[in-house]
Amino acid sequence: MSITVDAADAAFPPVSPSLPGLALGAAPQGFRGRIRGLRAEASGGLPAEEIERRLLELGFVEGARVEILHQGLFGRDPIAVRVDNATIALRRREALAILVEPLG
Fold this sequence. Notes:
Blueprint: H1 7-10, E1 22-23, E2 32-38, H2 48-57, E3 65-71, E4 79-83, E5 86-90, H3 92-95, E6 98-102
């Protein structure tokens, strides 16, 4: 399940009517939401499928609750994210592949 978009659009979702929401990597610290889907792109020499597989293995699955706990000082990278009951550190470019919607 991959949707290709221009790099300039990656930080400013929504990107698709079929997957409404915003990218977790563009959300502010303290954001709480639910995962709507993944939209991985090739990055750092890794194919999009590999990035998507890694995120799924870490628990970033549709419907999981997420919260941004902390962001790094320089470039806000990395970010600490709580997914259900696990805390995971992600690069911002990885978090941009996770589409979320706010809780509420």
